[in-house]
Design goal:
The protein contains 7 helices and no strands. By secondary structure, the chain is an all-alpha fold. The protein is elongated.
């Protein structure tokens, strides 16, 4: 009997594959969804939020080490394009309005004055006086031609 067993020896990989195929034929998709759901619930009950935070942190660090900034910029770009294709202008108007309302509830006028001041200073440093002269001239021309049309 030992000889026969040796000649028909299969690797663990082969035995696992055959067993997996047999189970796959025996049960339907719903069965696997149910046992997956039960397994997820059990794992959730056995481990607290800290466990998931830790594994999420570790996973994030691994991914961050594996890919460079360009990778994340590319996937962000693709995600933005996909979202843009799936949602129309109304979607962006709605989330923009909600964000604006939330922000205005969380901050007072002084906050907005401060960030406006910082933004103005940064823009001024970046573009210089000449930039403002050009846009001022354009604005003046458009304003004067606009007032001629309305007269």
């Amino acid at each position: 009997m030992a000889k026969n067993n040796q000649s028909n020896n299969m690797s663990r990989e082969e035995a696992g594959r055959k067993g997996g195929e047999k189970v796959s034929r025996k049960y339907d998709q719903e069965h696997f969804e149910n046992i997956g759901q039960k397994g997820g619930e059990t794992t959730s009950q056995e481990h607290g939020q800290e466990f998931y935070e830790d594994i999420g942190q570790k996973g994030g660090e691994k991914v961050s080490q594996k890919y460079d900034q360009e990778h994340f910029e590319n996937i962000g770009q693709k995600g933005g394009e996909t979202t843009s294709q799936e949602h129309g202008q109304e979607f962006y108007e709605d989330i923009g309005q909600k964000g604006g309302e939330t922000t205005s509830q969380e901050y007072d006028q002084e906050h907005f004055e401060n960030i406006g001041q910082k933004g103005g200073e940064t823009t001024s440093e970046k573009y210089g006086e000449e930039h403002y002269e050009k846009i001022g001239q354009k604005g003046g021309r458009n304003s004067s031609s606009g007032s001629n049309r309305s007269s």
